[in-house]
Amino acid sequence: MTGTIIKSTGSWYVVRGHETGELYRCRLRGKFKNKGLKVSNPLAVGDGVEFDLPEQSEGAGVIHTIAARRNYIIRRSVHKSEHAHIVAANLDQALLVVTLVSPATSFGFIDRFLVTAEAYHIPALLIFNKSDLYDEDTLDYQRQIAGMYASVGYPSVLCAAESGDNVAAVAALLPGKTSLLSGHSGVGKSTLINALVPDLDLKTAEISAFSDKGKHTTTFAEMLEVEPGTYLIDTPGIKELGLVDVPAAELAGYFPEMRALLNQCRYHNCRHVHEPGCAVIEAVDQGRLAVPRYESYVSMLADEDNRH
Ligand SMILES: Nc1nc2c(ncn2[C@@H]2O[C@H](COP(=O)(O)OP(=O)(O)OP(=O)(O)O)[C@@H](O)[C@H]2O)c(=O)[nH]1
Ligand SMILES: [Zn+2]
């Protein structure tokens, strides 16, 4: 049988079976190695697996094959001696919840998230929340920002999670996909999840009761099941996305609007800061490349220089 891992305790996995639609508790057969990947966990939520239900196993499954991953996000350990671990695999999109007031999310944070998503090859979208708190000027401003991000490949939705206003537009992004939901503390992520996942507590309780069977186990990771096949992964912020140490020379390649210009710079190793004949600087000067995006690039480049 085949299925998707929706919860992991490190030794047990909860798998949603594709053929039956049922939940299965599974173990991993024998030793598994992640080829060329130094991580502590062989399997993560979102992984596709093949498993058997042997007789005399009291309904517990045995995973014997892991499907190739389309992508995955890892979290580095705080202790250097420990391996990183895979937070989740096979993400279809990353949604970043942001706010323009109460609190205002900075461009720096947004662009860092988008660069990280590019590095992971995960399409990213922005959810502007708390629209009920925006006055006319802020709404104008929001349209400008949304336009700027849309023009470089990041669509967005404006909503108010608390009142439910336009949450339907967010819900429409989800069916059949695995979505990562991120955002600074206080932007309304929990409120949004509660609006998106009806009976959230019931569903979570059901899966816990099923997987823990009265034992005290720590959950390493869990996907919220909006419905079978539609999943949300809740993470507190960019640290979870573990902004991979993007080498300075590659950084501009993770800004889609800069990518197309890179081979037009006079110097092949142009850093696009004050080099003569730089196509990126020219685009900024001519208003073809948004200043806030360029400023984020320069600031990330400086951070990268300071690290080395
Ligand atoms: N006015 C307004 N307030 C909202 C909206 N959505 C959430 N809030 C409020 O914003 C505050 C933070 O919301 P949470 O859902 O707890 O935010 P969070 O992002 O999950 O924060 P953490 O739990 O710290 O990660 C709460 O007081 C919510 O009531 C909204 O659409 N409009
Ligand atoms: Zn350049």
From TrEMBL:
<keyword id="KW-0862">Zinc</keyword>
<feature type="domain" description="CP-type G">
    <location>
        <begin position="79"/>
        <end position="241"/>
    </location>
</feature>
<dbReference type="InterPro" id="IPR030378">
    <property type="entry name" value="G_CP_dom"/>
</dbReference>
<keyword id="KW-0699">rRNA-binding</keyword>
<dbReference type="GO" id="GO:0019843">
    <property type="term" value="F:rRNA binding"/>
</dbReference>
<keyword id="KW-0547">Nucleotide-binding</keyword>
<dbReference type="GO" id="GO:0003924">
    <property type="term" value="F:GTPase activity"/>
</dbReference>
<dbReference type="GO" id="GO:0046872">
    <property type="term" value="F:metal ion binding"/>
</dbReference>
<dbReference type="InterPro" id="IPR027417">
    <property type="entry name" value="P-loop_NTPase"/>
</dbReference>
<feature type="binding site">
    <location>
        <position position="270"/>
    </location>
    <ligand>
        <name>Zn(2+)</name>
    </ligand>
</feature>
<comment type="similarity">
    <text>Belongs to the TRAFAC class YlqF/YawG GTPase family. RsgA subfamily.</text>
</comment>
<feature type="binding site">
    <location>
        <position position="272"/>
    </location>
    <ligand>
        <name>Zn(2+)</name>
    </ligand>
</feature>
<comment type="function">
    <text>One of several proteins that assist in the late maturation steps of the functional core of the 30S ribosomal subunit. Helps release RbfA from mature subunits. May play a role in the assembly of ribosomal proteins into the subunit. Circularly permuted GTPase that catalyzes slow GTP hydrolysis, GTPase activity is stimulated by the 30S ribosomal subunit.</text>
</comment>
<comment type="subunit">
    <text>Monomer. Associates with 30S ribosomal subunit, binds 16S rRNA.</text>
</comment>
<feature type="binding site">
    <location>
        <begin position="183"/>
        <end position="191"/>
    </location>
    <ligand>
        <name>GTP</name>
    </ligand>
</feature>
<dbReference type="GO" id="GO:0005525">
    <property type="term" value="F:GTP binding"/>
</dbReference>
<dbReference type="GO" id="GO:0005737">
    <property type="term" value="C:cytoplasm"/>
</dbReference>
<keyword id="KW-0342">GTP-binding</keyword>
<dbReference type="InterPro" id="IPR031944">
    <property type="entry name" value="RsgA_N"/>
</dbReference>
<keyword id="KW-0479">Metal-binding</keyword>
<dbReference type="InterPro" id="IPR010914">
    <property type="entry name" value="RsgA_GTPase_dom"/>
</dbReference>
<dbReference type="Pfam" id="PF16745">
    <property type="entry name" value="RsgA_N"/>
</dbReference>
<keyword id="KW-0690">Ribosome biogenesis</keyword>
<feature type="domain" description="EngC GTPase">
    <location>
        <begin position="89"/>
        <end position="239"/>
    </location>
</feature>
<protein>
    <recommendedName>
        <fullName>Small ribosomal subunit biogenesis GTPase RsgA</fullName>
        <ecNumber>3.6.1.-</ecNumber>
    </recommendedName>
</protein>
<keyword id="KW-0378">Hydrolase</keyword>
<feature type="binding site">
    <location>
        <begin position="129"/>
        <end position="132"/>
    </location>
    <ligand>
        <name>GTP</name>
    </ligand>
</feature>
<dbReference type="InterPro" id="IPR012340">
    <property type="entry name" value="NA-bd_OB-fold"/>
</dbReference>
<feature type="binding site">
    <location>
        <position position="265"/>
    </location>
    <ligand>
        <name>Zn(2+)</name>
    </ligand>
</feature>
<dbReference type="InterPro" id="IPR004881">
    <property type="entry name" value="Ribosome_biogen_GTPase_RsgA"/>
</dbReference>
<dbReference type="Pfam" id="PF03193">
    <property type="entry name" value="RsgA_GTPase"/>
</dbReference>
<dbReference type="GO" id="GO:0042274">
    <property type="term" value="P:ribosomal small subunit biogenesis"/>
</dbReference>
<keyword id="KW-0963">Cytoplasm</keyword>
<keyword id="KW-0694">RNA-binding</keyword>
<feature type="binding site">
    <location>
        <position position="278"/>
    </location>
    <ligand>
        <name>Zn(2+)</name>
    </ligand>
</feature>
